[in-house]
Design goal:
The protein is mostly beta strands. It is about 5% helix and about 45% strand. It has one helix spanning about 1-25; strands spanning about 25-45, 50-55, 60-65, 65-70, 80-85, 90-95, 100-105, 115-120, 125-130, 140, 150-155, 160-165, 175, 185-190, 190-195, 200, 205, 215-220, 230-235, 240-245, 260, 270, 280-285, 295-300, 300-305, 315, 320-325, 330-345. The protein has a six-stranded antiparallel sheet. A four-stranded antiparallel sheet has the order 5-6-7-8, with no helix packed on it. It has a four-stranded antiparallel sheet with strand order 9-10-11-12, with no helix packed on it. The model is unreliable at about 5-20 (pLDDT under 50).
Length: about 350
């Protein structure tokens, strides 16, 4: 009888263990401390390297789990970086506020070597995100300085940048802008680009031709407040996309914080309209998987969906600002004073 009880007990433990594995989890592989630095911009450049940019002019890279860090100053001040991008040859860092500063870095050189390739001075300037379609073509977006979003682009691999005239962009509503939460206000697929806004309006701006022409679409994401709207966007392909955000001042509220599209962003439908998660600052599709698997983060934790955003599972309570995949089982996360590498288990 005793042996039977032991057998039943171990069977129970095995069942609990298997169920936990089936539900999925994460394991922290490495954590890197950056005291006093807020890191919202991270970029994977190869299988062994992560670049990052943050507050107080700090930037750097993690190569084979070894941290390298440096700082940039401009006219005696340290820029606040919240955007970073890689075009396959150079790394680019973009600061948020007046004057906006865009730097080009050759990753083959030691830290401390950089070139200033674009500046813009305006009391209203505030850049939110930066991305490249390919080696030659890139776009950055920011809050309006006039009656349109601030959009700059390059067609020569980041050597020069040009601001798009408001005559060529859709008008914004009063109080419509963007959030520099995780350098994910821009999503790209081939020649398509999507940019997202918040505040008075939560909308998606789309171009099918590398930013030459644009249209704009309304969304059902919560809007109208100063800290409401879309904080992040990602597209799996030309048709399947997801937007997330919510109300930064009511982070637990998931009523209208996420929506999905299956027509390239022409229409959007609320996803999990009354469930978790609430506020989200960064969302990414799993690379090399289907359009069903999604990872999202915010200060409220790490969340996973296996059904294109219809339902969500919280994997971790610890919060992060931004995420980028290294592969479909490994991801990098960043937050205040920390960068972490995680392994995704049984997802």
């Amino acid at each position: 009888m005793l042996n039977l009880k032991k057998l039943l007990f171990f069977s129970y433990l095995l069942s609990v263990s298997l169920n936990a594995q089936q539900e999925g989890s994460i394991s922290f592989l490495a954590k890197f401390k950056l005291p006093g630095i807020s890191i919202r911009a991270i970029e994977v450049t190869d299988a062994n390297t992560l670049w990052f940019a943050g507050s107080k002019g700090r930037y750097g890279r993690i190569i084979n789990d070894k941290l390298e860090i440096d700082s940039i100053s401009h006219q005696g001040k340290f820029p606040q970086f919240r955007s970073i991008a890689y075009n396959g040859e150079f790394v680019f860092l973009l600061s948020i506020e007046n004057p906006a500063l865009l730097y080009k870095i050759d990753p083959k050189k030691p830290l401390g070597h950089y070139d200033l390739v674009y500046t813009e001075s305006d009391p209203k300037i505030f850049f939110d995100s930066l991305a490249f379609f390919d080696k030659e073509n890139g776009i950055a977006m920011g809050d309006p300085t006039a009656d349109c979003l601030s959009v700059i682009k390059t067609i020569d691999a980041g050597k020069t940048w040009t601001k798009i005239s408001c005559k060529e962009l859709p008008k914004v509503a009063d109080g419509e802008a963007a959030f520099a939460a995780s350098n994910s206000n821009i999503a790209m697929y081939k020649n398509n680009v999507w940019m997202v806004t918040g505040g008075a309006k939560a909308r998606v701006f789309k171009s099918k031709d590398y930013g030459e022409s644009w249209n704009v679409t309304d969304t059902p994401i919560v809007q109208g407040g100063k800290m409401t709207g879309i904080f992040t966007v990602d597209f799996y392909d030309e048709t399947n996309g997801i937007i997330m955000g919510g109300d930064w001042e009511d982070k637990k509220n998931g009523k209208a914080s996420k929506a999905s599209s299956n027509d390239g962003g022409l229409t959007w439908n609320l996803a999990a309209p009354n469930g978790l998660p609430g506020y989200i600052s960064c969302v990414q599709y799993f690379p090399g998987e289907t359009a069903q698997k999604i990872l999202a983060v915010s200060t409220e934790g790490i969340y996973y969906s296996k059904d294109a955003g219809t339902t969500w599972q919280q994997l971790e309570e610890k919060g992060f600002y931004s995420l980028r995949f290294m592969d479909n089982q490994t991801a990098w996360l960043s937050t205040f004073e920390e960068i972490a590498k995680i392994k995704l288990l049984n997802l």
